[in-house]
């Protein structure tokens, strides 16, 4: 892979843009963009799988198409244009997913050869419409208050190598912390993140930390040594079906791991601590939701301590690893039937950029163990999202196969439980809940839960979660409709 120095945007230049495809279409497009600066896109190089091409239209070929995320971060690219008209819609979908996951503005040319004959006019570009997918405009959350909170401070991010953690690290780094500590138990994730943030994968920085949040002594040692001032806790087990099968693992990481971090934060004078939770914690029906609600209670129990603490609930995050869009793009790329659990299932959606910005904003607004939630509008029907996605890619027909809700999965999520009061905050698009007193005997009951998890007693662990959380009602698997596997025509 051949890299160039990071693009420095001048006052007159447009967004630095990668062109995927160095063939005739891509070269024509590059020339058209350079002659049309009013369009706001400045091509800086190509991606192409033909390793024999080193330059095209006066621009370097920076690497292969699957290198888009790495090249975007090393060059400072902000947009990507897919300019390979001969590609099938399924392959275009895969490229768009990769580029979007890297945080790029993505546009593509219509997938037909006639576009070449019309000289690839810039007006042929189409943008994958995010509002059309999630039913609302993207919310810009970050404020000057949040920037001032981070600038010059020591920041620790747990789960730093994950999708949310890595985006959070990128946003925090832009605000100029004095130190940014990246904690993860997966060295491969840390290697990739270090490469993205610093252009180097040597892992030779003291800010790279391998640790398991289940290890109380290790966490205590790290906090004593690093003395972080802000902690963003993104490390978690979060795959719903796996935690239904292995509930004790969810308890060990999501609940006990959070407790280790909160205790260390209080002991070593951390100013602010923010837990990343999920909308599944509101009246939980799954082990995932129950363990994350318990982690919220652990945070709320620290409300009177020296550290300002808060939790943030996310909906489904587009662009995260294993998210709906990544699964959808994979199925489209393979020309497979698209699997949806139930015809009526709905979810709240947010972008990965919104999610990370909300975490930073929550840290700035935290006063007394609030739980913050982004105003995500109305829930989106998964079937509608599938059709909106494939229509934008010009996929003429899709087949949807209904597989049935999985154990612990709700038909419809909600952001607040029946007993929580929703209150406004200083940000018009962020809501909060008031901290509720922890249930009597929480410490003792949590101790019993940890003991059950330590010996992998799933039955007792489930029983204790129900005892601590009366609102935890494990979901039963409902029947799917008679239309299982039936084809849905385009535009249904």
Automatic annotation (TrEMBL):
Ranges for domain Polysaccharide biosynthesis protein CapD-like: 155-432
Coiled-coil region(s): none
Alphabetical list of InterPro entries matching this protein: NAD(P)-bd_dom_sf (IPR036291), Polysac_CapD-like (IPR003869), Polysaccharide_Synthase-Rel (IPR051203)
Pfam families, per the entry: CoA_binding_3, Polysacc_synt_2
Taxonomic superkingdom: Bacteria
Family membership noted in the UniProt record: Belongs to the polysaccharide synthase family.
Protein name: Polysaccharide biosynthesis protein
Native organism: Bailinhaonella thermotolerans
């Amino acid at each position: 892979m051949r890299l160039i120095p990071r693009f420095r945007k001048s006052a007159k230049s447009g967004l630095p843009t990668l062109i995927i495809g160095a063939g005739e279409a891509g070269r024509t497009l590059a020339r058209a963009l350079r002659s049309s600066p009013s369009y706001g896109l400045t091509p800086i190089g190509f991606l192409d799988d033909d390793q024999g091409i080193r330059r095209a239209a006066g621009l370097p070929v920076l690497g292969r198409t699957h290198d888009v995320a790495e090249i975007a971060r090393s060059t400072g690219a902000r947009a990507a244009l897919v300019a390979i008209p001969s590609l099938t819609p399924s392959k275009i979908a895969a490229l768009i997913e990769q580029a979007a996951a890297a945080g790029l503005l993505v546009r593509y040319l219509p997938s037909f050869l006639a576009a070449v004959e019309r000289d690839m006019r810039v007006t042929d570009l189409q943008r994958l419409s995010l509002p059309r997918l999630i039913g609302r405009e993207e919310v810009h959350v970050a404020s000057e208050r949040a920037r001032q909170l981070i600038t010059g401070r020591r920041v620790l991010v747990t789960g730093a190598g994950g999708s949310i953690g890595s985006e959070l690290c990128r946003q925090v780094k832009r605000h100029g912390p004095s130190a940014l500590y990246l904690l993860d138990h997966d060295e491969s994730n840390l290697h990739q993140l270090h490469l993205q943030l610093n252009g180097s994968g040597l892992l030779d920085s003291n800010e790279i930390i391998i640790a398991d949040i289940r290890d109380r002594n290790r966490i205590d040692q790290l906090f004593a040594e690093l003395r972080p001032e802000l902690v963003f806790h993104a490390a978690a087990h979060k795959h719903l079906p796996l935690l239904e099968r292995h509930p004790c693992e969810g308890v060990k990481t999501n609940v006990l791991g959070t407790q280790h971090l909160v205790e260390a934060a209080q002991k070593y004078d951390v100013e602010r601590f923010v837990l990343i939770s999920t909308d599944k914690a509101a009246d939980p029906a799954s082990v995932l939701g129950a363990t994350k609600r318990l982690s919220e209670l652990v945070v709320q129990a620290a409300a009177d301590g020296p550290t300002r603490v808060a939790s943030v609930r996310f909906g489904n995050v587009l662009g995260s690893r294993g998210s709906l869009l990544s699964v959808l793009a994979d199925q489209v790329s393979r020309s497979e039937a698209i699997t949806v659990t139930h015809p009526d299932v709905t979810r709240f959606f947010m972008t990965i950029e919104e999610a990370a910005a909300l975490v930073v904003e929550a840290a700035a607004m935290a006063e007394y163990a609030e739980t913050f939630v982004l105003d995500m509008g109305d829930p989106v029907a998964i079937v509608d999202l599938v059709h909106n996605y494939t229509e934008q890619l010009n996929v003429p027909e899709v087949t949807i196969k209904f597989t049935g809700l999985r154990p612990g999965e709700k038909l419809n999520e909600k952001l607040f439980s029946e007993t929580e009061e929703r209150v406004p905050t200083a940000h018009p698009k962020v809501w909060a809940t008031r901290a509720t007193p922890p249930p009597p005997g929480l410490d003792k009951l949590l101790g019993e839960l940890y003991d059950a998890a330590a010996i992998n007693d799933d039955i007792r662990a489930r029983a204790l979660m129900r005892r601590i959380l009366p609102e935890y009602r494990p979901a039963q698997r409902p029947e799917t409709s008679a239309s299982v596997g039936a084809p849905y025509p385009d535009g249904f």
